[in-house]
Amino acid sequence: MAESSRYGEQVNSSARHGGLLTDKYELTMLAAALRDGTAHRSTTFELFARRLPEGRRYGVVAGTDRFLAALPAFGFDDNALSLLSEFLDPETLRYLGEFRFRGDIEGYPEGELYFAGSPVLAVRGSFAECIVLETLALSIFNHDTAIASAAARMVSAADGRPLIEMGSRRTHEQAAVAAARAAYLAGFAGTSNLEAHRHFGVPVLGTSAHAFTLLHTGADGSGELAAFRAQVAAQGAGTTLLVDTYDVATGVANAVEAAGPGLGAVRIDSGELAVLAHQVREQLDRLGATGTKIVVSGDLDEFALAALRAAPVDSYGVGTALVTGSGAPTAGFVYKLVEVDGAAVRKRSAAKASPGGRKQALRVSRPSGTVTEEVVHPAGHPPTVDGTARPLTVPMVRGGDVVVATGAAALAAARDRVASGLGSLPWEGLKLAHGEPAIPTRLLPS
What we know:
Residues 164-337 form the Nicotinate/nicotinamide phosphoribosyltransferase domain. Belongs to the NAPRTase family. This protein is α/β, with parallel strands linked by helices. The protein folds into two domains: 14-147 and 328-361 and 390-424, nicotinate phosphoribosyltransferase (Alpha-Beta Barrel), CATH 3.20.140; 157-323, TIM Barrel, CATH 3.20.20. It has 15 helices and 21 strands. The chain has helices spanning 24-36, 64-70, 78-84, 90-97, 127-131, 134-158, 173-185, 194-200, 210-215, 224-235, 248-259, 273-286, 302-307, 320-323, 408-424, and strands spanning 2-4, 10-12, 42-49, 59-60, 104-107, 113-114, 121-126, 163-165, 190-191, 240-242, 265-268, 293-296, 315-318, 333-340, 343-344, 359-365, 371-378, 388-391, 394-398, 401-402, 441-443. The strands form five sheets. It has a seven-stranded antiparallel beta sheet. It has a six-stranded parallel beta sheet with strand order 9-8-13-12-11-10. A hairpin with a 5-residue loop joins strand 16 (359-365) and strand 17. Helix 7 (173-185) packs across helix 8 and helix 11 runs parallel beside helix 12. The longest helix is centred in the first third of the chain and has 25 residues, at 134-158.
């Protein structure tokens, strides 16, 4: 699709989803490296977090599949090269015009838990081909991992009750699609976002908003019953009716009158949710709607979900807190050069030092399956440990070709991996309160 750029010409919008999804300094570094002959030195870059976000005890890796899917499209068409010619020399433009990543990538599978220092991704290849992927990798992993990590905390707090992602109106339109996928990956039941359903197969859910009830308002201020009858006529008695546009008790009575005792669910979106849920449950039961479920929504986060555990709530809708990472909008990942021509290199800046050398990791567990520590070790040299050790690092790309499952199968496997990982943590690792990471990380020297 063609659209106008800020320079006025018509450009192919697909180019925006390729090589231009990067920062300028990646390409100015590339130009300098091509000029002085260092561009083709063999390198390894690692993506990791120096620390978990404040108050978090674990994180959930997400974005792997989206990153792998982006690799084949990461290039520079004529329109992109024309833009870049404003500041790049002809040699660099020729290189970018022929760019295709031909290196190797390994890392933690999507849905795996991670901790401070975990080598979540290792990108190996020439400096030239690795450096241009930095911004792409960080933007995808930092966003998706932040959402999945928040979602996993919410899933734990919900204690087995389904969660619906409904935050599309609280974030960028494309971020909303990625957020819906990340939430589903972490254990949410579905999303309100249709594009996430189309693109990733995330189950889609949703019925009605307050506007539909208000649309039916009569001259006397009534009309709720008419709105409910219209919705039931269109969607059947199994639908969910929003009962808090006016008075909740009246709304519940109207909902049961419109749909009968077989009404699927009622939703409450405001007020003292715990108190209202108890009142609504009692009223539904008195009206014979004993099987009607209660859905609550309205600025929920993991702490609000935990506070509602004793309330007779059957499922939750979560929006703003989820798509903004619930206080941690980025995972804090960095992408650092750790190896040049097989030799370890390291950054030593104050408070931002990073260990050198390519690394892999093991997670150690007791016979019961409860994990006890993560061991980060020099690549190819796993240590002997006490307990059962599970390797975390797997090959993902070899010679530029993806070598792991992607798409729907990968998403299903990631959901299982998150659930298994959360189940393996010691009980204190699932606490929402601030504290130490769920397990310690032990870094072995290279």
